[in-house]
Protein: Pentatricopeptide repeat-containing protein
Amino acid sequence: MPLPAQLVEDPINSLIQRCPDMRTLRQIHAHFLKSPLSSSLYALSKILAFSALSAAGDIAYARRLFAQIPNPNVFSWNSMIRGCSLVSEPSKEPIFLYKQMLRSGFAYPNSFTLAFVLKGCSIISAFFEGIQVHCHAFKYGLDSSPFVQTGLLNFYAKCEEIASARSVFAEIPDKNLVVWSVIIGGCARVGLVNEALELFREMQEFGVAPDEITMVSVISACAKAGALDLGRWLHAFIDRKGIQLDLKLSTALIDMYAKCGMIEKARELFDKMEVRDTMAWSSMIVGLAIHGHVKDALELFKAMLDSQVKPNHVTFIGVLSACAHSGLVKDGRRYWSTMKKLGIEPLMEHYGCMIDLLCRAGLLDEAYSFINDMPIVPNSVIWRTLLVGCKNNRSFNEVENAAEQLLQLEPLNAENYVLLSNLYASRCQWEKVSYMRKKMKDHGVRVIPGCSSTEIDGFVHEFTVADDTHPEIEKIREVLRDIAERVRRAGHEPWTSAVLHDVVEEEKESALCEHSERLAIAYGLLKTKAPVAIRVVKNLRVCGDCHEVTKVISRVYGREIIVRDRVRFHRFVNGTCSCNDFW
DNA sequence: GTAGGGTTAG
Structure:
């Protein structure tokens, strides 16, 4: 007489619960196959679940096992769908499995199935498949399951379909911590910073206390907005509420402080970290590179390698851009081969850094061959980088070809016409200048005035190109003229951050506080006005020490001044672009 | 019997 199922399944179950590795699992599997009830689907499902889901599991083994099950039950399908979305290289496999399950007709999806397949869709941003799963949620009456709802919300957020995410969010009756975190993270990811911060406030009004995961999203929203005051407040909030400063939250704070100009604070946090992963190291290296602290960035990269943490593609963007900004051509080339040796396949951004590096060093021909040897099709950024380099190098003769490639790729981006127009002007090719303007007009490309803002004592001074409405505009102009004159007298042309630094230091000596305030405001104005001002800020950006100058201005002024928008000149908006370089 | 949310990028 066969043993009751309970007696066979329970030992298998308890063995699997204590199973440490696949070797043991194989033994359990063999034992199971020889046992009297080897046809028990329940026990087989447990073996499958371990292979597919456990950290010590083996998805290939799970696939082989699954293929041998004639009519898998929903639990087994779920294990496979979930297991296949946990692999390091995500694919459409979870979606294919889900479709197979529906076609099999032997198992119907439950709330677990939909939650798992939605996760699979979120990982690869499979928008059209996810929408079908949304329909299935209604069809199978699973749309009120909290896990399916959160899965849908997360899916839309990951696909950057914020309107859909918000409507799913609005329909969730009991919004828990996870639901709030997903919507806040979704808004932060697409740059809807104010919305993210507003939701964070609302969440607390609803009596839901944030945890470290929520805080990562909110802090990253601050980093994107350059909202230092709020970021610091949130840091204090984390301390006050005893929220755990784990690896990811520390990294988010480092990124926020670096992006908001407080690189020392970022470094302090980084140095205090007991465990650092690739992202933590990369954030700090990129932060130092943005601030122009090239030596520190490269030293830190060496320390990273010494601590056996593997760098990734983002780390190398930091390292290569640091080299580009300080003219370290030889080092840049060395890091490029290190990257390849480590098996990191260069992405478009890495090629961009290398071309930038060569152009800044005046090696235009080499940059051009580098582009021609690229194994991937160069994008507009690559051609633009080369053309920016052409502006400072008149001996380079491949401008026409590069210009053609650029305009073919992006015929509606005003920035390109402006760049080419200025490039031809610098070569006194006036016919081409007017041709560019005509072409731009023919394409109906409009320029949206660029703007920037400077915050002093909580008051935001905003400046837009050709806008004279600031109440102190005349006095500000006076300061600008004064600076320009002093720079001209000093014989510095074009301006560099070092020159502005000297001017501001001089200002400190003279202790003219009122003048200093205007200097700070003028700094905001510099970013949108006169050509010379654009050169200054461009140089600052080149040197990567925009915040360095802001800090100097802050010291003179004696209070904290924040440059908010991190010098974002060109912004592609619905086929038109914001651009400050067009007079 | 199984579940949902996190950081770095010119």
